[in-house]
Amino acid sequence: MTEEAPARFGSKEFKSNGPISILAADGNRYQLDDATNEYFGEIEKALREFDDKDDKKNNIQQRRDDGEEEELKQRNEAIEILANNALEGADGKEVELMMDARCSRLIERLVAHATDEALVFFLRKACRGWKTYALAMNIFGSRVLESVIRQVSKRLVVDGEGSVHHHHATTKERGIQEVLKFKEMLLEKEDVDDGFENEGRNRNNNSDDGEKNNLPEAGPRSCLDNLSYVLSSRATDISFDQRASPVARRVFFLFAGKDMPLNPGGRDKTLAVGQQNYKPQGNLESKLKGATSAEQFDASKKNREKHRDEKNEDRINAFPELLESHTNDVLANVEEVLWDMTDDPCASAYLQAILLSQEGDDASLKWIIPGLLGCAPPEDAPDGELLADLSSDDMKALMQSRSGSHLLEVIVRVAPRTLGAEIWRRFFRDKLMSISKHPVANFVLQSVLGSSKDPAVVASAVSELSALFGTLLYENRAGVIAALLAACLRLKTNEKDCCKALARGVTFKLEKKNANNATAADGTHNEEGGGGSRKGGKSQLARALLFLGNPPHGRCSVLGAAMMQTLAKYPADATVMFLESLCDTDPKTLLQAARDASGSHAIEAILNSRLVKAKHKKAIAELLVDNAVALAVSSGGSRVLEACYRETDNKTKKKIVELCSKREKEIVATRHGVVLFKRLGVKQFQNNASGWEKREEKSAAIRAEFEKEFGFDAPEKEKEENRNKTVLREVPPPPQKRKSRDEIHPGGEDERENDDENDDTIGDKKKSKKEKKEKKEKKRK
After folding, report:
1. C-alpha angle with apex 209: 203 to 213, nearest 5 degrees?
2. Residue 538: band (very low, low, confident or very high) from pLDDT cuts 50, 70, 90
């Protein structure tokens, strides 16, 4: 007989044979018995029945009344009881269930619905001994263990601070007392045989160099103590593993009481798209720091938030003692492979988690950062000399490494002020040319500029990079320029210099591009090329910045649109060349940018800016008004159309409404059409055009009166007139040369006498008026 080939893992034949035996990383085999597998199969069917009922109710779209609210409450209570009973029935089989391909998904859902007591009980059994290491290294167990730790972190947040019930499976709100009680359950110690002593004794006997293994303190320990010891003692293996590293990283943030950020530019694959409730670290928005947001960056607000965080160092959802001891144990165990960890994606993210969990603790970061860079300073080292032993070559290699650059981005972002200044002075200043051109190191420079709070650093970067803007744009390194523009805006320094350098850079890129297009393959000159930054007498700066290397018929550049949004918050005298260029843009190109996903944000920011002059806003709006319908049917263009509507006069507003009302069916069919019609008042215009005009006139008058009364967002014309008036008052008349008596009276003595007589008569008139006033005052008394 020929042997049959084994069934493929995950196939129907494979599943029909029941659970399999899995060899875990701790050397033990974990197999789910048939009785437990059948029991949790019934649990899965019960949960599926609840899901089917919910799907039927969702299909019948009815308003939820008090009876339905009560029914939802009863449903949640039934699922909670089911989850508690299921987790309690898993006693002794927690690891087997978490490692099973089918039951692991079921456990993830059950822990989300279980009570605090059932969750802690399950975690305590699952994290006993070296089972944590086996779970973390397993393909299914690592995912479930990470979900359990995430659920613990969410339940440690009080409603109002983190709004737990938005993430928790039930709708129960959590108060401080509930969170404190849950924290006490997590820290509750129990005296059980975890097997640490036997494992440590075996490792000491098998070690060739006689090195002793550090064991946890004898006596009762909590589940968090076990979790910390296992993950720190095996940190070398765990940090390099793609399954275990995310689990270990989440433990750092659990102890720190913080949300775990995502990898740079990445997405948490364990969560659905709707559950991505925090932003990735190192993304474009974090480097531009408010330059592209609706409101301008407020440094004072950030300082207030930082001060509030400093006052709340002892947050109830944090475990500061566990975090400190866990960090020290991990760093001691990975010291020998520290430099290798910077080149590995998983291990580099592991080191980043250590830094981010300690963010805000300057006393700890002052010594952790030099240690991670391999130059641990002596204890008596003064500020400014902590990185004296770090060579420039090592720093350059780290900066140019794909994984090491991500670590360095986090280092410059969380470093204390004095240490950050030392990093800039030793490794960045006077070296920006090579760093900004490197395909990897330039991202580190962006992070430095995005996190800098020192105007001197930004001013130094502007002076060093301003001559390179054209080269950076031509070589597709515009991210450095975008970060520098945002830094100048945030710190209110060198704004005009940066704008001038950007204009020169865009002009340089246009000239070089036109020169390349104008030269044919055989070396002949093409007369259609050339022209620099002007075409047909009109400036091309704005168009070149918005599209930034993309073809004119293509999409707008994300970085170019972000830079244009930043310029909208600059002073008007600094950005006048870009605004005038935008007003000179042909309507077709401007419409294309207004309908683009990135370009629409830039144009909307300019139209909504309080710093852009009214004449520029009006010119941009007039170019777009004829294409109101094309803007209305676009998701991004509809926002631009609303901004145009606000910035135009009543005649232009009427034109916009008339054009939209003619194509009502087409516009309302879009997702945003109904809201747009309501904001533009199209229905009111169709029902009563004269009433609509009166309403618009009245609203314009109220707005003008409000602006006149409070001086908020006053029109530029009034501001200019007031400015001119104040200038006329303050500036004295020019000094005149004093004329001699002969020059004034060339007629001689007779003319002088006549003037003297005239002066006497004028003086008499003044005296008579004064006497009359005195008499009137006496009569009143």
Report:
1. 35
2. confident
Find out whether 21 and 5 touch, Cβ atoms under 8 Å.
Answer: no
Instruction: Name the residue type at position 653.
Output: K
Residue 519, C-beta contacts closer than 8 angstroms, at least 6 positions apart: 525, 526, 529
Do 80 and 15 contact (CB within 8 A), yes or no? no
Q: Which token pair is 502? A: 């950007």
CA 107, 110, 114: angle at the middle one, nearest 5?
135
Tokens standing for residue 610: 């309080």
DSSP string, 413-462: HHS-HHHHHHHHHHHTTT-HHHHHHSTTHHHHHHHHHHH---HHHHHHHH
Q: Whose CA is closest to 391, among 374, 378, 379, 409?
A: 374
> Structure tokens of 714?
């006053």
* Pair of tokens at residue 603: 């144009």
Of the two residues 231 and 51, the one the predictor is more confident about is: 231
The CB density around residue 51, as the number of other CB atoms within 10 Å, is 9
Q: Is the pLDDT of residue 13 over 70?
A: no
Dihedral of CA atoms 8, 10, 11, 17 in degrees, nearest 10, equals 90
Residue 781 to residue 777: CA distance in whole angstroms = 6
- Find how far residue 44's CA is from the centre of its chain: 39
Determine the 3-state secondary structure of 190 from DSSP.
strand
What is the H or E stretch that residue 534 is in? strand 534-535
Q: Which of 54, 50, 135, 133 is nearest to 97 (CA)?
A: 135
Would you say 32 and 20 are in contact if contact means Cβ atoms under 8 Å apart?
Answer: no
Cβ burial 222-239 (10 Å sphere, 16+ → b, else e): bbbbbbbbbbbbbbbebb
Q: What is the DSSP letter of 370?
A: H
Rounded to two decimals, what is the model's pTM? 0.79
Amino acid at 311: K
Integer angstrom CA distances of residue 333 from 243, 330, 342, 368, 565: 20, 5, 15, 14, 47
Q: Tokens at residue 271, please?
A: 């969560």
Select from 572, 556, 672 the least CA-distant residue to 615: 572
Q: Within 13 Å, how many C-alpha atoms sit on residue 452's CB side?
A: 30
Name the token pair of 217.
Answer: 């303190």
pLDDT of residue 169: 47
d(CA 445, CA 515): 31
The whole-number pLDDT of residue 483 equals 95
Which contiguous run of DSSP H or E holds residue 716? helix 716-730
Separation in Å, CA 259 to CA 174, 229, 477, 531 = 18, 22, 32, 53
> H or E segment at 524?
none
Task: Judge whether 644 and 656 are in contact, CB under 8 Å.
Answer: yes
Contact partners, residue 347, CB within 8 Å, separation at least 6: 239, 240, 245, 337, 340, 341, 403
**CB contact at 8 A, 766 and 774:** no
Nearest to residue 245, comparing CAs of 146, 323, 346, 355? Answer: 346
Long-range contacts of range 702-706, CB-CB < 8 Å, 24 or more positions apart? none
Taking Cα atoms as reference points, which of 628, 639, 571 lies closest to residue 294? 639
User: Is-contact 643 604, C-beta < 8 A?
Assistant: yes
Q: What percent of the chain has pLDDT over 90?
A: 47
Average pLDDT over residues 277-281: 46
Distances (CA, A) of 726 to 646, 693, 735: 30, 37, 20
CA 565 from centroid of its chain's CA atoms:
15
Residue indicated by tokens 């901004």:
643
